[in-house]
Amino acid sequence: MSQRRVLGLGGATLVVSASILVSRLLGVLRETVLAATLGVSTDGDVYRNAFVIPDFLNYLLAGGFLSITLIPVLARRFEAEQHQEGWQDFTAVFRTIGIAIVALTGVLMLLAEPLVGLIFPRLAAGDVATIVELTRVALPAQVFLVLGALFMAVSYTHRRFLYPALAPVIYNLGIIGGGLLGAAVDEPSPHAFVWGAVGGAVVGNFALQWFGAKRAGLQWHSGGSRQAIRQYLVLALPLMIGQSITVLDEQFPRLFGQLAGDGGTSALTFARMLNMLPVGLIAQAAGVASFPFLARLAARGEVTELADTTLKAARTAAVIGVGAAASLIALAEPLVRLVYQWGAFTGDDSRLVSGLLLPFSLSIPAWAIHQVIGRWFYANQLMWTPVVIGTTATLAAVPLTLFATDRWGLTGIAGASSVVIWLYTIVLTVAWVKATNRRLGLDLIQSVLRSIPGGAAAALAGLWVARSIGGDAPLTVVPALIGGAVVVVSLFLLIGRAFRMPELARTRSV
Predict the structure, then answer these.
(1) How many C-beta atoms surround the C-beta of residue 371 within 10 A?
(2) Using an 8 Å Cβ cutoff, are 219 and 49 in contact?
(3) Cα 40 to Cα 42: distance, rounded to the nearest angstrom
(4) Average pLDDT, 10 consecutive residues per value, the chain (510 residues)
(5) I want to staple 13 with a disulfide (CB 3.0 to 4.6 A). Which of 119, 192, 289, 366 is the partner?
(6) What one-character DSSP code corresponds to residue 65?
(7) Three-state SS for 138?
């Protein structure tokens, strides 16, 4: 497929979904390699904890939202046929963000030791020293991740999705390759995985994205517009100041896992990784693919079509999210055994991680809804609303997670994550309904409620089939997985047809 071809929303969704599928599968493979080499252990915790400070740097510069904030700025220029001015705006923003990320990276490398000690007071001194060392290795990767996100915005604005879609694929390949190479040369350790992540960021998130932006027509113009920088900062500042639960949710297993002892962070992360596989395929694919179209509708002032497009995408994603949650609930244990139970990962570890996957899976429909509705706010440049709601949810999540950890341990952390994601989604949806009209909210609620009976019945039936077939070793669970999956999908679709759910029909017609 030519990169010069401009995709429609359906085609864009398929490209993004396919790339996310490959990326998520590679992410699962990455976790399988980590499970087999490091297991549910202190070394596994150290590897994950080495990314806490680098990830916070990314959040501080709204790294995960750079494309979202820059796309509306560029879209308005290009919709008005102001191409040279658009490239001037891009150059000015790129230069400003580049200086900021390089400077902050240097500062955090100097402060890594006291910061790590402050964040992980429960860990042994030797583990803290290793985390400091690996943090300094991982920090420079953020320069390439952040600047690469700006190149992605150029591709997205021109509705070219291939090169951005390849970024996480190459990033995961870098981690996997680094870890396997390190294990082949020496004993398995977190160091090789971290170096692999740096290499993946340089190649996939920066170099390839520069090439993709160049193919989309990237031009550099010195003396960029100060107005563009101000406009960009107005959009990005809420995302820099506010730390939303949607991005910090990944950090909670790392921050609170230390309270549960050695291996707690690894166990939570293994479970969350499997949960985020359908989240990526459904929620993130719908959000990423729809956003350039929503931004252009907003730029043209087509208010009604913008709201209707958002509703259609949210309803479809929510219903599929319910089906995905039902699948994970039914197939949690055989899936964990197949994916992780190799090498250093034991049967006891499988039972622990599959038990954590159940509460995590309840969040999937909420992720599906807010990933789409949040884009409506971003397309309209209403950045403060989702940020304030998300930051409030984050503040509420801290005491809730501490309480849940004290009462239920690791299971409490996973359950608190789902509760907070749902609270955020409900409040964000209410804000969206107030900004549009009541009918849209009722339609979305109707879609969710109609899908729940089918999801519950499918989950129970699939769980019974999977447990009846049984199996403990990784390969012996394959029949249980296949049988359970067939039952879940068939029953969910059958009940959906009986309830005449149009969302399922739309997925077949994309």
Answers:
(1) 26
(2) no
(3) 7
(4) 47 63 83 92 92 85 65 78 83 88 94 94 91 96 92 86 87 94 88 96 96 91 69 70 68 83 89 88 70 80 89 90 95 95 93 96 94 89 85 90 92 95 95 87 89 95 92 88 95 87 61
(5) 289
(6) G
(7) helix
φ, ψ at 260 (rounded to 5°): -100, 5
User: Per the structure block, which two tokens stand in for 289?
Assistant: 């693919």
Query: In this structure, which amino acid lies at residue 309?
Result: T
Asked whether the beta carbons of 331 and 478 are under 8 A apart, the reply is: no
The answer to whether 370 and 361 have CB atoms below 8 angstroms apart is no
Domain spans of the chain, in order of start: 1-241, 243-448
Q: Over the range 176-213, which residues count as b (16 or more CB within 10 Å of their CB) and which as e? A: bbbbbebbeeeebbbbbbbbbbbbbbbbbbbebbbebb
Considering the entire predicted model, what is its pTM?
0.80
Contacts of residue 68, defined as CB under 8 A and 6 or more positions apart, other chains included, come to 291, 375, 378
- Report the distance separating Cα 77 and Cα 75, nearest Å: 5
Task: State how far the Cα of 103 lies from the Cα of 119, in Å rounded to an integer.
Answer: 22
